[in-house]
Amino acid sequence: MSMSTASIFNRKARIILCAIIMLLLFMFLFKNMDYTLFSNRFNIYLQMKNGTVYRVKFLDIPASKQIKPQTLDNKPRSVTTMTNLATDFNKKLSFLGNLTYSKGNVQVYNLSLPNNDRFKCVSLRQGKNTPICLYDTKVDLHVSGSLARTGSWEAGYLNQVKSFLMQRPKAGLIDLGTNLGVYTLFISKTLQRPVLSVEPYYPTIRRLHKSIKLGKLEKFVTLVVNPITDTRETVYFRRSSNNQGDTRISQSKTNDRGLGPNSSHSILMDDLSDVANFTEAVMKVDIQGYEMKAFSHSKRFLDKVKIFAIFIEWEFYRNSKAHPLVPGFLEEMKARGLKPYSPGRIPLALTQWRKWPFDVVFKSDEVKW
Ligand SMILES: *[C@@H]1O[C@H](CO)[C@@H](O)[C@H](O)[C@H]1NC(C)=O
Ligand SMILES: *[C@@H]1O[C@H](CO)[C@@H](O)[C@H](O)[C@H]1NC(C)=O
Ligand SMILES: *[C@@H]1O[C@H](CO)[C@@H](O)[C@H](O)[C@H]1NC(C)=O
Ligand SMILES: *[C@@H]1O[C@H](CO)[C@@H](O)[C@H](O)[C@H]1NC(C)=O
Ligand SMILES: *[C@@H]1O[C@H](CO)[C@@H](O)[C@H](O)[C@H]1NC(C)=O
Description:
- By secondary structure, this protein is an alpha+beta fold.
- The protein has two domains: 32-95, no CATH class; 101-363, Rossmann fold, CATH 3.40.50.150.
- Helix content is 28%, strand content 24%.
- It is built from nine helices and 18 strands.
- It has a seven-stranded mixed sheet. A four-stranded antiparallel sheet has the order 3-2-1-4, with no helix packed on it. Strands 13-12-14 form a three-stranded antiparallel sheet, with no helix packed on it.
- Strand 10, helix 6 (202-214) and strand 11 (221-224) form a beta-alpha-beta unit.
- Bound molecules: 2-acetamido-2-deoxy-beta-D-glucopyranose (NAG) (5 copies).
- Keywords: Membrane, Transmembrane, Transmembrane helix.
- This is Methyltransferase FkbM domain-containing protein.
- Pfam families: Methyltransf_21.
- Residues 239-262 are annotated as: Disordered.
């Protein structure tokens, strides 16, 4: 009887002692652990000390396409405040950081890297059927929608850009606001000319990268991932739910906390001088209301690269009563011998810029329609 009581006591004592040791060991090992980061390519999962798991969704990719989370970084980390957390996050996710290299102020995407993302890609009809990768047409009605249905987008403008370039054998294309790459892919494929592309929005960049690789066009394209405006600063993306081509930047910090691919570092058009390796060009500019700001710091660049024609979206300036940057832009165009026309080739009067059409072509007399 007494023997058995003693043995039960000993067992209990051993279990309790064991539990205490385990607890101490755990406390020692995890004393600094405030959160753990898990990640796949699209989401970051954050597990707090109290067990709450947060998911930070970065990309508008249909749920069915998302891969299962894999442990990327499960090392315990110590953070004291949410501010530190955000900073740490930012460092961790200088998202494009390891996909790009720097030239001056410019971040250039390394197109030689592999891209195993899975997108729907179709043939770009005018571009010798080179592949072009799309968004789901539900979230990108216009450009992806049109490409999925017809394999083409802005065919008339594309042929005009090509015709101008064919008259200037040394000229390259400058494609500001490349989006899914219709102009970039078309010109690099059909004319094998150098193209300087600028596209800052990560989900779009990945599609563009994929299209360029599928078409084996890496050697023609330089892809810059900084948005162009009138400042060098951190800017944030504003998205549209059904038109990814309408993604635009915002210089106000209220929208987002500036984490991951929601933010980017803007540059000036002049900064492109460091990456343009051709000195004659045709330019397309479609940057959702930032066109005038982009041209407000462009003298050095325009001195380096002689432009024969600029295709520019005028939607954001027509009908505006006063726009402080338009007069300076028009003077600059005039000084460089670039005259405004409607896409239908009708000359436009400089004083009438408020009534110009949605798209305008500035053209030098050195190239013919
Ligand atoms: C866990 O901690 C986070 C902040 O660290 C807090 O926002 C959240 O409400 C906590 N969850 C629970 C269930 O206590
Ligand atoms: C870039 O970093 C991410 C996250 O750390 C990693 O998953 C990815 O493989 C890296 N890419 C390259 C090309 O090193
Ligand atoms: C681009 O990526 C390739 C393949 O990983 C690598 O060999 C090359 O050094 C990278 N180029 C630059 C400029 O980082
Ligand atoms: C221009 O840049 C492209 C892409 O970086 C490169 O492949 C090409 O060789 C360069 N051309 C010249 C003439 O330097
Ligand atoms: C990025 O922006 C989207 C849409 O505006 C938002 O839902 C998401 O929470 C943002 N992500 C971060 C990390 O701020």
